[in-house]
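S.,

As promised, the FE2/S2 (inorganic) cluster run. Input:
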Amino acid sequence: MTEDGTPGGALPEGALTQEVPTSTGERLLPPVPGATRELLGEPAPPPLHPPVQGMAVVVGSRPVSAYVELTLEAPDIADTAQPGQFVAFAVGGPTSAMLLRRSIAIAGVGEGRFSVVVSARAAGSTWLASLRPGEEVDVVGPLGRPFPLPPEGTPALLVGGGYGAAALVGLGGLLRSRGHEVAAVVGAGDEARLCSVDDLAAVAAPFVVTTDDGSSGRRGRVTGPVAELVAGAGVVYACGPMPMLRAVADLATARRVPSWVAVEESMACGIGVCMTCVLPVVSADGRTRFSRSCVEGPVFAGDRVRFDDVGTLPADVVGADAMGPAHTPAVEGETP
Ligand SMILES: Cc1cc2nc3c(=O)[nH]c(=O)nc-3n(C[C@H](O)[C@H](O)[C@H](O)COP(=O)(O)OP(=O)(O)OC[C@H]3O[C@@H](n4cnc5c(N)ncnc54)[C@H](O)[C@@H]3O)c2cc1C
Ligand code: FES
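Predicted complex:
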């Protein structure tokens, strides 16, 4: 841990070793039968402040490429939020049948206000994106665990996909203010779906844009420039679609660089009660548990997430025997 309670970057050699039946490193690291693999990242620590619920006033709404950026007045949330956290909006108004809140990453904070970038897709996000200045919305936040900050002097590489890049803007500014070198790669399917390009370009060098169709920046996926830049990074932060997070985490892990990924699992309650948002993550003791993205995440150490097994019930997950018929003992000698 560093002085401010944040975990450090790479752990000392051999500090944490165990057999990890994950695929994240196995595709890039040569498999060594019976060998142990050192985990590079600690579980993300909890946030400094508890969430609050209240009405936030919309004070700004503007289109940003394919998205809408909303700015909301909510000092209790804005003044305590840390980069990587999110808020959960009640959608549809007081008589709406849409019972579930919609989780949206916090893109920026300042002067008692926070901003979010909304991609209008189905009913809930379309309602959110249609909010106008002066309107109020019920919101809970800040939620989830923030991005842990690296030890002093650690160069950081930020990787954002689609609107996921917005969640890295506050982190990039914070890292720069603490004297870190920051590089960034921002990618999307096409130019219209790029996000936060100017904000991240202002804090990062080198700064690379990619689009799948070549309509802006380099043609191709973020993984091309990430593979080039990761060797110069001491820590990698990523937010975007799950396949991108997995690829970025794999690249970092293969080069023994710790990574932090902010996942976007479907959430129902958003506060740790319903278990909707779980995914298999290797815990501090080396065993895999279903971790709730809303309270143990959304930020996880990239090499701890078992991306191959997301959406499944791996037999070695702690408690798997109580959840389904298939169970293989996770620990030698354990009785199923
Ligand atoms: C941590 C986090 C950060 C996010 N950040 C952003 C962001 O910055 N910008 C953005 O546009 N979107 C973001 N999202 C996605 C956002 O929460 C919505 O899912 C998305 O906007 C679609 O909402 P909708 O109402 O249009 O779609 P709908 O299909 O009407 O509703 C989707 C919602 O239904 C619920 N849901 C769907 N499937 C399931 C399921 N299988 N089990 C339980 N509940 C389910 C979830 O609450 C989900 O959010 C984020 C999600 C998470 C978890
Ligand atoms: S969304 Fe309910 S536990 Fe995470």
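The chain has seven helices and 18 strands. The first strand starts at residue 17 and ends at 18.

- D.
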